[in-house]
């Protein structure tokens, strides 16, 4: 009897807890007062969804409500905590992994048909015999042409399990009937190094478009190639690079910094600090490095620029960078979706946070680019606002600032001729690419005798090509476009796009860089030092 009395409070407590739990699961007739006062914050959201599922007058897709709710919560945190719906996860994962399983073609939808721009070197389609200009009509018996198919639908038909076969029917101009190809799917790289080549006898160039899992290996491979042909200085082009994995940025910085130099440190909400130092593996510690940045260089790009600048290594060239100093971690939400949640801030070796303010909300934050245009800072470094309270000093006495991006050591203004809105619009909308493709289709063998080097260094279009492009645009857009003021720049874009479609592998960048004032500045800096 004494034993029962001893355990009576425990038994009653367990019974009450069980009753509350079961009642909470079964009772959907609670008043709103009880809902908001008797349940935790998590229960509140769960039960609201249950009420809508079971009681709301109309059928509602509660998955979409959950998505809106998650986005609403994250929008109240910071601009870089984001939700990734499950339908986007495969694409996002492939992009950050740096590869996917597919057939290995660059294509676009031309007149409702999948048209191969070029095959990826060494990829499954090239091995099978598919060439630029081929139209893929069917895949495994399914039609893949027509207005109703999106690029995502097409990609799903062409992607598949590793080593699986896909039967393709292809239309090739000049052939009397459709051609049949069996293509074995394989790993296809999503390259993050767009170009790597020599600018001068001693100066190499590497363009990185993002920091994915594969980026360091790609970068290291190209850096080794350039070192073997005698370069002692290198340009790392991080313009328009939105960032990616912090650890990959650290690996790249490690190539240039001496052992035990601080690369960065992070601090979480508990105040825990984690420092990251350079190791012994760097192979370019004695070489000179230039880093190109602009207003779209963010996150991991800023880690590279900040670490080198704060360690007095190399020269940062360009315009003030984006200003993202927050670190995210991807977390699985259990239904195929995920959230990238900000978990810490990072600081450059001198202790700078380069995260710009987001206190006025996400819209103002993402629209800050227009404020930079309005203020004139993209054309004049004197217009860049700095705060003395955020002044830091490097070991060699150079003054640097926190509070909103990396300010370059050497400022280069926005080139309004090569980066004007019309050319950017035409390039992004595919007008230049489509025009070049149609010109190439007239005679794909016209350039067979021209080497890559000869084309890039010496080939020139006459003014008639610009007039043809004008006619093409005016027919497609029903506008009245002329390029009197940008004749040279239009020819440069057309030549670069043609180089890309014929040669690939960074040919576009090699052509465009011939008229790049930031590249010219770096070459001048390199030539002025011995």
UniProtKB/TrEMBL annotation:
A GO term from the CC aspect: outer membrane-bounded periplasmic space
UniProt cross-references to CDD domains, sorted A to Z: cpPDZ_CPP-like, Peptidase_S41_CPP
InterPro entries per the UniProt record, alphabetical: ClpP/crotonase-like_dom_sf (IPR029045), PDZ (IPR001478), PDZ_sf (IPR036034), Peptidase_S41A (IPR004447), Tail-specific_protease (IPR005151)
Keyword Transmembrane: yes
Domain PDZ: 81-159
Species name: Bizionia arctica
GO molecular function: endopeptidase activity; serine-type peptidase activity
Keyword tags: Hydrolase, Membrane, Protease, Serine protease, Transmembrane, Transmembrane helix
Annotated protein name in UniProt: Peptidase S41
């Amino acid at each position: 009897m004494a034993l029962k009395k001893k355990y009576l409070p425990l038994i009653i407590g367990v019974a009450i807890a069980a009753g509350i739990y079961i009642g909470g699961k079964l009772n959907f007739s609670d008043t709103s007062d009880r809902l908001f006062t008797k349940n935790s914050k998590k229960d509140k959201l769960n039960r609201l969804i249950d009420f809508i599922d079971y009681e709301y007058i109309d059928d509602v897709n509660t998955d979409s409500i959950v998505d809106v709710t998650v986005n609403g919560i994250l929008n109240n945190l910071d601009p870089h905590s984001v939700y990734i719906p499950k339908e986007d996860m495969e694409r996002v994962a492939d992009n950050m992994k740096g590869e996917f399983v597919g057939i290995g073609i660059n294509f676009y939808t031309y007149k409702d048909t999948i048209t191969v721009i070029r095959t990826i070197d060494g990829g499954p389609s090239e091995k099978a015999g598919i060439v630029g200009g081929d139209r893929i009509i069917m895949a495994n018996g399914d039609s893949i042409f027509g207005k109703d198919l999106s690029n995502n639908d097409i990609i799903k038909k062409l992607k598949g399990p590793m080593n699986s076969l896909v039967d393709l029917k292809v239309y090739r101009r000049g052939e009397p009937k459709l051609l049949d190809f069996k293509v074995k799917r394989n790993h296809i790289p999503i390259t993050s190094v767009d170009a790597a080549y020599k600018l001068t006898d001693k100066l190499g160039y590497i363009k990185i478009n993002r920091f994915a899992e594969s980026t360091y290996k790609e970068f290291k491979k190209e850096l080794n190639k350039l070192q073997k042909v005698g370069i002692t200085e290198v340009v790392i082009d991080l313009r328009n690079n939105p960032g990616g994995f912090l650890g990959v940025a650290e690996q790249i910085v490690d190539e240039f910094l001496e052992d035990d130099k601080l690369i960065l440190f992070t601090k979480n909400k508990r105040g825990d600090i984690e420092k990251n130092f350079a190791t012994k593996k760097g192979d370019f510690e004695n070489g000179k490095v230039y880093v190109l940045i602009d207003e779209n260089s963010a996150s991991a790009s800023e880690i590279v620029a900040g670490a080198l600048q704060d360690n007095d290594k190399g020269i940062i060239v360009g315009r003030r960078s984006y200003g993202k100093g927050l670190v995210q971690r991807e977390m699985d939400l259990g239904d195929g979706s995920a959230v990238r949640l900000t978990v810490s801030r990072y600081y450059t070796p001198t202790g700078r946070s380069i995260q710009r303010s987001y206190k006025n909300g996400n819209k103002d934050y993402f629209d800050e680019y227009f404020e930079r245009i309005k203020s004139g800072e993209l054309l004049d470094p004197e217009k860049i606002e700095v705060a003395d309270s955020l002044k830091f000093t490097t070991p060699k006495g150079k003054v640097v600032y926190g509070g909103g991006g990396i300010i370059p050591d050497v400022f280069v203004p926005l080139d309004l001729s090569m980066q004007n809105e019309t050319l950017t619009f035409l390039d992004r909308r595919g007008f230049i690419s489509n025009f070049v493709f149609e010109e190439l289709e007239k005679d794909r063998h016209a350039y067979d005798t021209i080497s890559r080097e000869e084309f890039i260094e010496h080939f020139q279009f006459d003014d008639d090509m610009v007039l043809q492009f004008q006619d093409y645009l005016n027919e497609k857009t029903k506008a009245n476009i002329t390029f009197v003021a940008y004749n040279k720049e239009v020819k440069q874009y057309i030549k670069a796009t043609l180089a890309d479609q014929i040669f690939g592998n960074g040919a576009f960048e090699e052509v465009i860089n011939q008229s790049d004032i930031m590249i010219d500045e770096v070459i001048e800096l390199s030539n002025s030092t011995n």
